[in-house]
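Ticket #4471: structure output looks truncated?

Reporter: J.K.
Steps to reproduce: submitted the chain below (140 residues) through the standard prediction queue, then opened the result file.
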Amino acid sequence: MGLDFGSKTVGVALSDPLFLAAEPLEIIRREHPSKLRRTYARIEEIITEKNVGKIILGNPLMPSGDEGERALLTAEFAEGLRRRTGLEVIMEDETLTTVEADEIMDERGIPKSEHKKYVDMIAAQLILDSYMNREKYGKQ
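Returned output as attached by the reporter:
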């Protein structure tokens, strides 16, 4: 499972059973940035429904590679996922995934006004694809 964690949404993507490709699944809407109970609950439901064995979580590093406030909040979220699910949570650099997701939607002819509906789950797909490619081919 790939996750793109944000203050208002969490994009979710899943790999196919052979770990060859990732597909966007859904966007979990968050009511408040500090409330995560429902978000964790939905992720746990997906894990059970889809037999997820590992979580790949986008790590929002700054362009310099340093961790900012967003990365620290994401690390706290990762720890909560580990505690609640018992699964391994791997942090994957998500630099420019939102930009790439916008480019993909432009290429597919999705109007800019619709991008917000899909950007987070496409970013989650890109995060998961990045991890799978690195594992498969040793790419950085």
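Triage note (M.O.): checked the attachment and the full token line is present. The helical segments are 37-50, 69-85, 97-107, 115-137.
Status: closed, working as intended.
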